[in-house]
């Protein structure tokens, strides 16, 4: 756990610098949260590095000059990380199409760092194989070409299938971890799972998989962990800017077992194994079109925006939902009324608050989450 914590809190990314130093000519590609095809980066022998802003460890000095005040914090803190040379070890940066803010950030990046590789990854919002599928395949071919040029390593189909298998393993163990936490959240508390997931931002996938396996084996041996009278809740709204760890701890202390969430979706966007036979680009296209996670930055082809949340509540036997959106996060806050309506139709209790990655005062959140948790327990006993 200590290692996971250190890795997830290190805003100097020492693990990435060390990884690069372990081999000649190694390169690292950063990417903003949500989905990018990390398999292609891996197949080129490079390290994919998830960038989730500066958290609560970074004072923003110059980053504020790049964005208006009514904008979430993650783009400013990411700019601050870059201007303070903390991202100098990155050889390129990917900006998946999360929202307009990230689109603008990619443009700023190109202007600030004209000598570095920058790519706006325009993921499809059409899920028809002949439309969004063809579009996404072209985008993947572009990335395959760019990464081969950047790394000097041709990405053949066999290498890409091998990388897909590595990430299948990683996603598999993350699913195991989420299942285990949902079954026994007192053994696998969210405050630990969160650090472990964040470590996956900077570790090679093989190492991250080993770390999670070790944790899954060791956590149940901690005999002092006992089931307590808490409410089981699903967290929603944190798919891009990530909450400070203190906020996660606060929710647990307020009497909640977090049994599902949308943290760090980029690590688990593809919800099923990707095929390791046949054309690997077609396999990645199929996985994106048919097995993607749902989030506010993704179009819902069936128009049923709340279905995934209701499913999550039912699958995890949750008793309520906490919407915790980043302050000024347009996609999350625009999605919220539709999700709330879906929960209301199903009679599922919910509450909501906003946060920023550097939120430092948790008293109000603790009171609100604690009252929510208490009221769920009172209602269910009535
Ligand atoms: S937190 Fe929301 S508004 Fe801000 S960059 Fe992420 S998705 Fe966009």
Explain what you see.
The protein has 14 helices and eight strands. It is of the alpha/beta class and 382 residues long. The protein has a domain at 11-155: Rossmann fold, CATH 3.40.50. Strands 2-1-3-4 form a four-stranded parallel beta sheet. The chain has a four-stranded parallel beta sheet with strand order 6-5-7-8. Helix 6 crosses helix 11 (280-290), helix 7 runs parallel beside helix 9 and helix 10 (245-253) packs parallel to helix 14. The longest helix has 27 residues, at 157-183.
Beta-strand percentage?
5-15%
Tell me, rounded to a whole number, the average pLDDT: 95
Q: Per CATH, which architecture of the domain at 11-155?
A: 3-Layer(aba) Sandwich
C-alpha Rg (nearest Å): 20 Å
Helix proportion range = 40-55%
Q: Total number of helical segments?
A: 14
What's the N-to-C terminus distance?
Answer: 39 Å
The assigned structural class equals alpha/beta
Order of helices and strands: HHEHEHEHEHHHHEHEHHEHEH
Strands in their spatial order, largest beta sheet: 2-1-3-4
- Work out the number of β strands: 8
Detail the topology: elements first, then pairings.
Elements: H1 2-9, H2 14-21, E1 28-31, H3 38-43, E2 47-50, H4 74-83, E3 92-96, H5 100-112, E4 117-121, H6 129-151, H7 157-183, H8 190-199, H9 205-218, E5 231-236, H10 245-253, E6 256-260, H11 280-290, H12 307-315, E7 320-326, H13 330-346, E8 350-355, H14 363-381
Parallel strand pairs: 1-2, 1-3, 3-4, 5-6, 5-7, 7-8
Iron/sulfur cluster (SF4) is lined by residues 72, 74-75, 98-99, 101-102, 240-241, 297, 326, 329-332.
